[in-house]
Amino acid sequence: MTDREAETGRLWIRDPIATLGEGAERGVVVEDGRIVELVGKGAEPAHPVMKVFDASRHVVTPGLVNTHHHMFQTMTRAHPAAINKSLWPWIASIYPVWTRHVNAENFRLAARLAMTELMMSGCTCASDHHYLFPRGLEHAMDIEAEEAAALGLRMTLTRGALDLTGAEDSQALAPDGAVQDDDIILADCERIAARYHDRSDGAMTRVALAPNAPFDVTKRLMRETAALAEKHDLGLHTHLVETAREAAFAREVHGMTAADYLEENGWLSSRVWLAHGIHFDDGEVAKLGRHGVGICHCPTSNMVLASGICRTREFEAAGSPVGLGVDGSASNDNSNLMEAVRHALMIGRLRYGAEGITDRDALRFATEGSARCLGRDDIGAIAVGKQADLAFWTLDELRFSGSGDPIAALVLCGAHAADRVMVKGDWRIVDGVPPGMDLEKLRHEHHQASRAFLENF
Q1: What is the DSSP string of 405-425?
Q2: Has residue 373 got a pLDDT over 80?
Q3: Structural domain range at position 51
Q4: Is the pTM of this model over 0.85?
Q5: Predicted pLDDT at 172
Q6: Hey, which end of the chain has fewer CB within 10 Å, N or C?
């Protein structure tokens, strides 16, 4: 079977070691980009198949879904200005570096490298919260759309924005060169929605609107983006209460909780998902849950910046979907979503105990929960009718030797690279890499471009 043979005809993915899909012990049948049959223990496909893929070396999971990232930040990993700092000193130090040096050329390389890393870690769908639009980078969303299409990565183009600077508001952190005028932002949101937003089942590209955070955007921008999202049926996204300081900011500056601030500005709905959401109180958790607001848990960056631990259990109990994100590649400092699954388990056990969160819970965050955050019911699970977005993992490394439960082994033993990845029935990762991609060339070009970000250090 060639790498592209899954495109036409019925393909039986046969006899995996294990699958994260009930009743699929002998695998799944894929046709026209969808899962059309689960083959149970001792069974054969109900209808003839044209091709067979021998999955006997693989554990098969749904493709992972990344609900929060900042891909441009791959240019500033372990940057001397930012290491060993908590969020606010970190971002104050690194913002000027980004504003001076991010341009269309290095942004394209940053996005390509981040997307490639994600796919190699088993990711089939991603959202990138891009909020930095210095002069010359006005078409950042178009660049991301092109790069995602070239790789075959399902994408939510999440158009971020900044419209307050530190010169205008003592709480804001963005320098002058990072912000845009509201009317320019809103016009570009309309343009991107018209060009890229596809609400159809199985869509490869959708759009969400994402003012960066309440401390560096105006109320007008929050309200206007909510209205645009309602008009075009788009998702809404922002950072919220990643740190205790942000929770205090809402009370001190706006005279209300962060959840009440969302409500006042038209942001309490199931189209909304929030990055981090660490420092909500019990009443806020209940309110967000009642409205189905999603929470993107970012365990790796939360540990690096020592921001706190997301209350994943309470949110799910309240009714909020909980997804997973790698967050920025300068606060993570990588784009590996499977690694974030393991970190979600470990940090979750610090809060809830060894029995309080399982390997399946952590995988659920990265699949079904993330899909719900992005407003998608066509991905995130191995089930009939879902898109054929699948990750294939081998257990032939030393780290897995002696493991008994193949699914648990992926998380507990630390899987970090998928052997194969399928998106919409097409093989997008084969033998651990995107077919035809020169990874060394990409790494070299990206690394050379990143040298400019070390100017004056």
Answers
A1: -HHHHHHHTT----SEEEETT
A2: yes
A3: 5-62+387-429
A4: yes
A5: 60
A6: C
